[in-house]
UniProtKB/TrEMBL annotation:
E.C. number: 2.1.1.77
Gene3D superfamilies: Vaccinia Virus protein VP39
HAMAP family xrefs: PIMT (MF_00090)
Domain of life: Archaea
Protein name: Protein-L-isoaspartate O-methyltransferase
GO cellular component, one term: cytoplasm
Swiss-Prot/TrEMBL GO biological process terms: methylation; protein repair
Alphabetical keyword list: Cytoplasm, Methyltransferase, S-adenosyl-L-methionine, Transferase
General function of this protein: Catalyzes the methyl esterification of L-isoaspartyl residues in peptides and proteins that result from spontaneous decomposition of normal L-aspartyl and L-asparaginyl residues. It plays a role in the repair and/or degradation of damaged proteins.
Lineage: Archaea, Nitrososphaerota, Nitrososphaeria, Nitrosopumilales, Nitrosopumilaceae
This protein's encoding gene: pcm_2
Keyword Transferase belongs to the record: yes
Catalytic class of the enzyme: transferase
Tagged with keyword Methyltransferase: yes
Catalysed reactions, as listed in the record: [protein]-L-isoaspartate + S-adenosyl-L-methionine = [protein]-L-isoaspartate alpha-methyl ester + S-adenosyl-L-homocysteine
Length: 219
């Protein structure tokens, strides 16, 4: 998959903007973003904004995340080839596709609560011939026990607290990243060890759409 020439310059510029503001330091993640054309994941009416470093409204009042934030989350998640990843909140499928690029022969499972968005993400991934990512329509607060444990888990919506069900589905030595808290949220990176969960990173100042699930009173 290649970004066509019309968008190449805009993509180069976006990469430059992200780097200037201190994002996107990892070559592997840069390559993944370069090979995952964002204009294929935004509604046609907003395609001109595809390479702005900003979130864009998709449908159901949800957004495709801001590129610099996607790059930071992807870098912190430290994805390796062959891994099995769980994503909660597929949205447009852009972050899903970036993860799919990085896992190579591995697999990404992405759960989306809005069926229209699950369809949108599926369509976008299919369009690019991505076969190592599967979108599941449903409530991600329960995770995806059928395929657990996961080497990496990413939540792309703001949760008050990381659901225990997701921590249970993380492998030992696995990493989980999520925006946590009220408004704004902190980006939190957790690691599961044989003796419990430890916090690796915590950075304030992020704003995400809310994580809404059956168990949302508890999370
Ligand atoms: N990463 C996506 C953007 C995600 S926006 C992209 O780049 O396009 C957050 C998404 O999380 C929304 O689509 C929202 O519907 C979804 N979401 C919120 N709570 C959820 C839940 N409990 N289970 C599954 N998806 C959820």
């Amino acid at each position: 998959m290649k970004t066509n020439e019309n968008y190449q310059q805009k993509l180069d510029n976006l990469i430059l903007v992200m780097k200037k503001s201190g994002f996107l330091n990892d070559k592997k993640v840069e390559l993944a973003i370069r090979n995952t054309p964002r204009h294929e994941f935004v509604p046609i009416t907003l395609i001109k904004k595809a390479y702005d470093d900003s979130p864009i409204l998709i449908m159901k009042n949800q957004t495709i995340s801001q590129p610099s934030v996607v790059s930071r989350m992807t870098e912190w998640l430290d994805v390796e080839e062959g891994q099995k990843i769980l994503e909660i909140g597929s949205g447009s499928g852009w972050q899903t596709a970036i993860l799919a690029y990085l896992v190579g022969c591995g697999m990404v499972y992405s759960v989306e609560r809005h069926s229209e968005l699950a369809e949108f993400a599926k369509k976008n991934l299919d369009k690019l011939g991505i076969t190592n990512a599967k979108v599941i329509s449903g409530d991600g607060s329960f995770g995806f026990p059928e395929e657990s444990p996961f080497d990496r888990i990413i939540i792309t919506a703001a949760c008050k607290k990381v659901p225990d069900s997701l921590l249970e589905q993380l492998s030992i030595n696995g990493l989980l990243i999520a925006p946590v808290g009220g408004y704004p949220q902190s980006m939190v990176l957790l690691k599961k060890t044989s003796t419990g969960i430890i916090e690796i990173k915590n950075q304030p100042g992020y704003v995400f759409v809310p994580f809404l699930g059956k168990t949302s009173e508890d999370i």
